[in-house]
Amino acid sequence: MSLRIAVVKGDGIGPEVIPEAQKILEHFLTDADFFEVELGLARWEKTGSACSPEDIRELKGADAILFGAVTTLPDPNYRSVLLQIRHELDLYANLRPIKSGEVDIMVVRENTEGLYSGIEEVGEERSTTLRVVTKAGSKRIAEKACSLILERNRNHPLVIGYKGNVLKSDLLFRDTCSEVASSFGIQTKAVFIDALCLDVLQHPKKYDVIVTTNMFGDILSDVCGYLTGGLGMLPSANIGDKHAFFEPVHGSAPDIAGKGTANPVAAIRSAAMMLEYFGMKGEADFVEESIQSVIRSGFLTPDLGGSASTAEFGSRVYESLSKK
What we know:
It is a single chain. This protein has helices at 14-28, 41-47, 53-60, 81-88, 135-152, 169-184, 193-202, 214-224, 265-277, 281-296, 310-322, and strands at 4-10, 33-36, 64-69, 93-100, 103-110, 120-121, 128-129, 158-162, 188-192, 209-212, 235-239, 244-248. By secondary structure, it is an alpha/beta fold. The protein is globular.
C-alpha cells in the first residue's frame, strides 16, 4: 500500500514554501498519494471554520502531514489550528533540530500541555491561561528525549530547561524528567530557561538534547535560530504514537507573504525529517547535502543576504539533489 501524505499549505508564506518541499518528497516517494487539505485563515474567512472535524479525520487518515503555516487571529472566536491538530492527533513531541557547522542540538519540546493547554478565560478586565504540567505528559516527553540521547550517542547529559524557582509546576517536570533519565542510565543537568537561552548562544557546542515545556521550547528553539541564520532555516517534527506532522518553524510571516522571497529551507528540511521518519535517513542526508551545496555556491534568499526567489532557490536544491 502506498503512503498517503496530507499537504496543508495554509496561509502567509505557506503556499510559497510548501511546493518546494513537496517536490523533494515526490522525488523520493514516487508511489505516494499526496492530497491537499485546506486549513487556516482563508478557510475561516470563507466558511467560518479554520479546521473542521472532517479535516481532522482526513489528517488522521494520512501516514504523515506536510504543513506550511497558519495565521492565528487575536480573536476569542478563532481557535488555533495548530493547537487543535496537536491535541486531536496527540502530537506530544515537538522535535526542533538546530544544525550549523559543528553545532548539532535537538530541542525536544512538550507539545500538548503547558501554557498551550488551550484552557483559557478571556475577559475585558482579566484574562487567564491555565499552565498544565502532568506526570504522564512529562514522562512521555522525557522518554522521547532519552531515546534521542541514546540514538545520537554523543555522551552528553540530558539538559532540562525549566523555571522552578518561579513556576512550581516546573518542579514536577524537572523531577519527572530526572527520574526517567535515571531509568535510562542518562545523566541530567537542570538549567533555568532564561540562563539556558543565553548560554546556548554563547556555548552551543556543549549542548546535545534539551527537553523543556511547551512555551519554553517554542522560545528556546526560536532563540537558537540565531545559530543557523534565522527562522527560515529551522524545521520541526510533531510526533505522536500514531501520527506525524512536519512543519517549518517560521510561521506565516505575513509581512513578506506574496513577495516570492521567503526562504524555503525550513520547509525542505521539514520534508527531509519526514523522509527520516519513514526510515529514509540516507535520502534525508542527500537533501541536507543539496541545501548546503546551494548555500555554499552563494545562491541565497534575501534573508541570507542574496536575491534568489523562493522558487529559484527551491529549484536549485532540487537540481542539486537530482544529480546525486
